[in-house]
Specification:
The chain is α/β, with parallel strands linked by helices. The protein has 2 domains: 346 residues, Rossmann fold (3-Layer(aba) Sandwich); 34 residues, no CATH class. The chain is built from 12 helices and 14 strands. The strands form 4 sheets. The chain has an 8-stranded mixed beta sheet with strand order 1-3-2-4-5-6-8-12, with helices on both faces. The radius of gyration is 21 Å and the shape is globular. It starts with a strand and ends with a helix. This is NOTUM carboxylesterase.
Length: 389
């Protein structure tokens, strides 16, 4: 099932894949069914939905895409949009993420997609990873159906995970504490997950799980893809077992968090189009404050607009990036929320909003010591933190 908002004058289509973790064995899928039914069945879905962020039809909230045809595809397959298995003797559950996308495309062709100029496949979290896994397949499907004029592109938000070492190693007991590699290794077998052929060829048989990690699949993709990723993604920290609740953060955690930002920044250096703010958050493109976040003075809608233009121009003459219209935007400051446009942080217990300095002190950040390390006066460091330099 899917939701559609037609915009008859437009030849641009935006298909959005919803996120929401996954489950990878009978036990945690049963738990998911009991506690998060809307992510496993369409029974309780509302009749209509209101689009927000990049799915909004208000130009103020969505300056460059407000007029597109919008499609919201809810996530009920629990398989990171990769599965191709129906319910069987062996499994009580069907995992059909990859097939759902194909079927939606087939149906939309009859509703105007056939005359589209641009199809942007977007998604957040598990939906963001779903974009990386499906964008080339969508392009191939449309070509096979004879629609060669549609430019297929991807926009992956908060779906670029690292297969790094956890801060504290735990056994793979449930979805939240299981290391990402272990969860995907189990999941891909349980879902009968499929990955793109070109990525699959890079790895040995049985190692297809590698293709769920952005930095490994990205070099194999044919379609242009824009990557949006918080440098300190909350879902990544959760699976790495860094829990920022209440207690001051120990030095080991603090170093781990900073290192995570560095590692992530490294994996994005060869990504042509990217937007990576140094914030602690998760998901952005469907939030109504998505226009407020900036990296190096450029907002995300503006960067996406520049990317659109660069793809449009490069079709004509393969020009270098457009002047004053950047598409590779990665924060260089080293800790969470050193960018002053980051979304507000709330204390998880009191619900109080915190500014950067309160947040860092709450995390056990030692201003004196940090200032010493950077060779600065503490007051100067505090000034820099609050202005975000």
């Amino acid at each position: 099932s899917y939701y559609l908002k037609e915009s008859r004058g437009s030849r641009r289509w935006l298909l959005f894949l919803e996120g929401g973790w996954y489950c990878f064995n009978r036990e945690n899928c049963d738990t998911r069914f009991d506690t998060m039914r809307r992510l496993m069945s369409s029974k309780q879905w509302p009749v209509t939905r209101v689009g927000t962020g990049i799915l909004s039809s208000q130009p103020e909230e969505n300056p460059h895409w407000w007029n597109a045809n919008m499609v919201f595809i809810p996530y009920c397959s629990s398989d990171v949009w990769s599965g191709a298995s129906s319910k069987s003797e062996k499994s009580e559950y069907a995992f059909m993420g990859a097939l759902i996308i194909q079927e939606v495309i087939k149906e939309l062709v009859g509703k105007g997609l056939s005359t589209a100029k641009v199809l942007l496949l977007a998604g957040s979290s598990a939906g963001g990873t779903g974009v990386l896994l499906n964008v080339d397949r969508v392009a191939e499907q449309l070509e096979e159906m004879g629609y060669h004029g549609i430019q297929v592109r991807g926009l992956a938000d908060s779906g670029w995970f690292l297969d790094n070492k956890q801060y504290r190693r735990t056994d793979c007991i449930d979805t939240i504490t299981c290391a990402p590699t272990e969860a995907i290794k189990r999941g891909i077998r349980y879902w009968n997950g499929i990955v793109p052929e070109r990525c699959k060829l890079q790895f040995k048989e049985g190692e297809e799980w590698n293709c769920f990690f952005g930095y490994k699949i990205y070099p194999t993709l044919r379609c242009p893809v824009f990557i949006v990723q918080w440098l300190f993604d909350e879902a990544q920290l959760t699976v790495d077992n860094v829990h920022l609740t209440g207690q001051p953060v120990q030095e080991g955690q603090w170093l781990y968090i900073q290192n995570l930002g560095r590692e992530l920044r490294n994996t994005l250096k060869d990504v042509t189009a990217s937007f990576a703010p140094a914030c602690l958050s998760h998901e952005i493109i469907t939030r109504n404050h998505w226009t407020d976040i900036q990296v190096k003075g450029t907002s995300l809608p503006r960067a996406l607009h520049c990317w659109d233009r660069s793809l449009h121009e490069s079709n004509k003459n393969g020009k270098t990036p457009l002047k004053g219209c950047p598409i590779h935007l990665i924060d260089s400051c080293p800790w969470p929320h050193c960018n002053p446009s980051c979304p507000t942080i709330r204390d998880q217990f009191t619900g109080q909003e915190m500014n950067v300095i309160q947040f860092l002190m709450h995390m056990g950040f030692d201003v004196q010591k940090m200032a010493q390390q950077q060779g600065l006066e503490p007051s100067k460091l505090l000034g820099m933190l609050s202005s975000g330099n």
